[in-house]
Amino acid sequence: MLRFYLKKRLVAGKKSFDLELEYALADGEFLGVRGPSGSGKSTLIRCLAGLETPDEGFIKIGEEDWYDSRRRIFAPARKRRVGVVFQDYALFPNMTVLGNILYAKADKARARELLELTRLTEQADQFPRELSGGQKQRTALARALAREPELLLLDEPLSSLDEELRDSLGDELVRIQRATDITAIMVSHSKAETRRLCTEVLELRSGHLNDDKLRVY
Amino acid sequence: MNIDPLPFWVSLRLGTWVTLVLVLVCFPLAWLFSQAKGRWTVWVESIASLPLVLSPTVLGFYLLLALSPRAPIGRFFESAFHVRLAFSFAGIVIGGCISSLPFMLTALKTGMRGVPGNLIEASYSLGKGRLETAFRVVVPNMKTGLIAGIVTTFAHSIGEFGVILMIGGSVPGLTKVVSIAVYERAESLDFSGANAYALILVVASYIGIFFLNSLQRYESRR
After folding, report:
1. Residue B40 burial (C-beta neighbours within 10 Å; 0-12, 13-18, 19+)
2. Is residue B102 a contact partner of residue B51, using CB atoms and an 8 Å limit?
3. What are the phi and psi torsion angles at A13 (to 5°)?
4. A49–B128: do the CB atoms touch at under 8 Å?
5. Residue A194's pLDDT band (boundaries 50, 70, 90)?
6. Could you say which of B116, B129, B140 has the minimum Cβ distance to residue A78?
7. Chain centroid, CA B158 distance in Å
8. Which among B118, B125, B126 has the least Cβ separation from residue A88?
9. CA B179, CA B185: separation in Å to the nearest integer?
């Protein structure tokens, strides 16, 4: 179970607002967080990943505290068992597909398994610059899963793909999430995408929930 | 025309030592500056860039004072390592390092800042620390910056004049570098001799810069 309460002051140009959100997500669920640009979606992902520090709150996964402002606990990103798929995938250009996965965990058997799961076996020795958008997305996903994280965070993973590819890779994402039974949170600005792929959906407006849990499948 | 090869040998040794020392010194400095956000970096970076705008003679004069056996640094080297820095090869290496530091530091800093921040964050999120991220993600993705640092530092240090003359004088085989040889030949009105030394330096510098530009062109096309 992932439980968190986060509060962070966000400044966008001359405007500022508080991102304030409390939520609990059961193991194996796939939460979609949607909202317009600048609503605090990516900051939420970054705070959960340990790439940004909230102003106050807590993040607890199972019995493990990743962040607690009162007890001054902050586990940096490298100490959290988290897998992040960045919006532009952030693949290491100097490594092949296999190299990117092995960088996360030097376990060849696990890497081969992930290559098969993400249907990238044939591209194992290719560099990121030689891959299509969809292959890059799947490489980023395989790399994020390599360390067997407790939480998978996806920051608009489908936004840079064309519509047709977005649909098929969205399905692929759900297949892999279910196959690995990993708790996942995906941020997206698309209402249709989150509704179609996620088991729970939240909508953020200027840092706050627009409504309560909008839809539970 | 009598061309003495010794100044070339001294310049080559000087350039190699300065480049090697500066790669080792500037890597952690550049990493620190590229990551740090505090205002103090502006102060420290400005000091590190000072040799770019300071007259080499002024820099050389203060270095000579600092490295002389009467000054604390010079005294320390003499008592601890039995090395006299003023008018020695070790002294001109130190002078060359300080004089060329901004070239290496700027090139490495620019190279590191050119590595997208999300690659570094991706590495952290994959459980890697700063050191492993620096060596396995940052360095391989800033090759052009590293080579630019090496080429410009080497070219600058083999052509160094003012600082070297102030600290090292002109001891043949020890501190007499090519640029000092050019100066001495010109001063004694041996223009063809000065021209021979100078021309070799120009060609060597051109080859270095040409190599650097070709590499940058190749990298930008990739």
Report:
1. exposed
2. yes
3. 65, -125
4. no
5. confident
6. B129
7. 9
8. B118
9. 10
Task: Give B122's contacts in chain A (Cβ within 8 Å).
Answer: 84, 86, 90, 92
Is B222 in the A-facing interface, judged by CB distances under 8 Å? yes
Q: What is the predicted ipTM? A: 0.87
Q: Do A78 and B125 touch (CB under 8 A)?
A: yes
> What are the structure tokens assigned to B79, written together?
């008592």
Q: Structural domain boundaries of chain B? A: 6-221
Rounded Cα gap, residues A48 and A56, in angstroms: 13
- Burial code (b: 16+ CB inside 10 Å, e: under 16) for B130-169 equals eeebbebbbbebbebbbbbbbbbbbbbbbbbbbbbbbbbb
Q: Cβ separation of B122 and A90 shorter than 8 Å?
A: yes
Q: Residue A133's pLDDT is what?
A: 86
AA identity, residue A190: S
Among the partner-chain residues A49, A88, A129, the one whose CB lies closest to the CB of B125 is A49
pLDDT for position A204: 83
> Cβ of B192: how many Cβ atoms within 10 Å?
8
Q: Is B3 on the interface with A (CB under 8 A)?
A: no
Residue in chain B nearest A129 by alpha carbon: B222
For chain A, which domains are there? 30-53+76-216 (3.40.50.300)
pLDDT number for residue A217:
32
Whether B125 and A88 lie within 8 Å, measured CB to CB:
no
What mean pLDDT do residues A148-158 have? Answer: 89
CB atoms B140 and A94 under 8 Å: yes
What is the architecture of the domain spanning B6-221? Orthogonal Bundle (1.10)
CB atoms A77 and B124 under 8 Å: yes
Q: What pTM value is reported for the model?
A: 0.79
Q: And the tokens for A217?
A: 């499948």
